[in-house]
Specification:
The protein is an alpha/beta fold. Helices cover 38% and strands 16% of the residues. It has a 7-stranded parallel β-sheet, with helices on both faces. The chain has a two-stranded parallel sheet with strand order 7-10. Strands 8-13 form a two-stranded parallel ribbon.
Length: 328
């Protein structure tokens, strides 16, 4: 790589969305630093580019010195670090607020030309959910430090490694009944690679700073999304819509199990997530989004079959196996 090749530092670049961003930026010819706590566990990103083009580097976003080193010399910085639930080691305040603020301030000090911050659709300073509240607080601090930063707020993301449709399909293997918490809540699922394209566009094109809400072309209730996932996975299951009062009790039980096991058994559902499920997760009317970035979002039906097929009874051979069982 040339010494004049631009450099992008991706915090959390080995995670679900981060690896897609790293891949796209490498293909665009950038040198990519994947800033993670355990570089030895992120070596799978190295083949995304030529030899030495994509490098995992040691960084703890709660440590100013290592964060500063990760940013030094970078032309662009992407922060896609986030957690879905708190642990005894990480809180929403630590990750969504303090880390976001630190990365933005150090990027401003280093005269980084582009900062892209991955937030979440539904971020709201007045939300009852701590997750949503801290996401909004972090967004505000990022724009305070770097007013020209681009903040992307995606709805729930889907893709090969997702924890949304994969979790539904995995649970369907265990029980003939599928509980659906927040069944009527609407989502606008977005393909993870479309988020990576949005990041690349924000870095390489002349895109105005500010907040962009990103949702896919389809809006559906959680009940219908679960039903659709079961159909793609070839699983016939009874969908049980769980009322919120029961969902809160279930989440509390999961949290108690996690606490009693010292975190060895993580909660499958939390009370904070139940609060989030009370609000539709769709793009606001009039918000900047994919259209302003010049991107056509990908439909779910063109992607889901490509990775949920292995939950079928015979995997990729299900169709031909069932066809062979039919009498001539």
């Amino acid at each position: 790589m040339s010494k004049t090749t631009p450099i992008v530092t991706i915090f959390g670049g080995s995670g679900f969305v981060g690896r897609y961003i790293a891949h796209r930026m490498a293909r665009a010819g950038w040198r990519v630093r994947v800033a993670v706590r355990r570089p030895n566990e992120a070596m799978y990103v190295k083949p995304y580019g030529d030899v030495g083009q994509v490098e995992p580097i040691l960084c703890n976003i709660r440590d100013e010195a290592s964060t500063r080193r990760a940013i030094a010399g970078a032309d662009a910085v992407v922060n896609c670090v986030g957690i879905l639930q708190e642990t005894k080691f990480q809180s929403f305040e630590d990750v969504h607020v303090d880390a976001a603020d630190l990365i933005a301030r150090l990027s401003a000090e280093a005269d980084v030309s582009k900062l892209i911050h991955i937030s979440a659709l539904g971020a709201d300073a007045d939300s009852d959910s701590v997750y949503s509240e801290t996401k909004a607080e972090g967004d505000a601090l990022v724009l305070q430090a770097m007013p020209h930063a681009v903040i992307l707020r995606p709805s729930v993301m889907f893709g090969t490694e997702d924890r949304f449709f994969n979790r539904m399909a995995e649970f369907s293997r265990l029980s003939p009944v599928m509980p659906v918490f927040g069944a009527d809540t609407k989502f606008q699922p977005v393909y993870v690679n479309d988020i990576a394209v949005a990041v690349e566009t924000a870095i390489t094109d002349d895109i105005a700073g500010g907040i962009y809400e990103l949702g896919g072309p389809e809006v559906a209730s959680l009940h219908d999304l679960t039903k659709g996932a079961m159909e793609v996975a070839g699983r016939r299951r009874i969908l049980l819509d769980v009322p919120f009062w029961s969902a809160r009790m279930t989440a509390w039980s999961f949290e108690m199990i996690e606490k009693m096991t010292g975190g060895l058994v993580p909660a499958m559902l939390t009370r904070d997530q139940i609060k989030m499920l009370r609000v539709d997760n769709v793009v606001s009317e009039g918000a900047n989004g994919f259209a302003e970035l010049g991107i056509e979002p990908t439909a779910m039906e063109s992607v889901l079959d490509g990775y949920l097929y292995h939950y079928r009874a015979y995997g990729q051979y299900t169709a031909i196996t069932e066809s062979g069982k039919k009498p001539n």
